[in-house]
Specification:
119 residues, mainly beta
Length: 119
């Protein structure tokens, strides 16, 4: 089992920056990749960015490419999402998730952290 705890969400103004953190515990050695998702009211959960835990290679959704940066600190078992130039449409609950193999879905999830961007 892998446990994930997000933090860092809060109310910000449009144009501000914010960094989210996700601390992993438990069988972290089994993690293949981690990702940041978000879900806005009435919308489907959206994968924003993913990072391979060992190699550090990353991938981004077009909607956040160039504004958001995913990173991880293996020594701290922590993943980050640096969000810049925030927009009101970035308002959502942000979740981190982990998967243990390339051909499997994300099966470990955090509880979510609310990000609200005011105009």
């Amino acid at each position: 089992q892998v446990q994930l705890v997000e933090s860092g969400g809060r109310l910000v103004q449009a144009g501000d920056s914010l960094r989210l953190s996700c601390v992993a515990s438990g069988r972290t050695f089994s993690v293949y990749a981690m990702g940041w998702f978000r879900q806005a009211p009435g919308k489907d959960r959206e994968l924003l960015a993913a990072i391979m835990w060992s190699r550090g290679s990353t991938d981004y959704a077009d909607s956040v490419k160039g504004r958001f940066t995913i990173s991880r600190d293996n020594a701290k078992n922590t993943m980050y999402l640096q969000m810049n130039s925030l927009k009101p449409e970035d308002t959502a609950v942000y979740y981190c998730a982990a998967k243990v193999a390339a051909n499997l879905g994300y099966n470990y999830w955090g509880q979510g952290t609310q990000v609200t961007v005011s105009s």
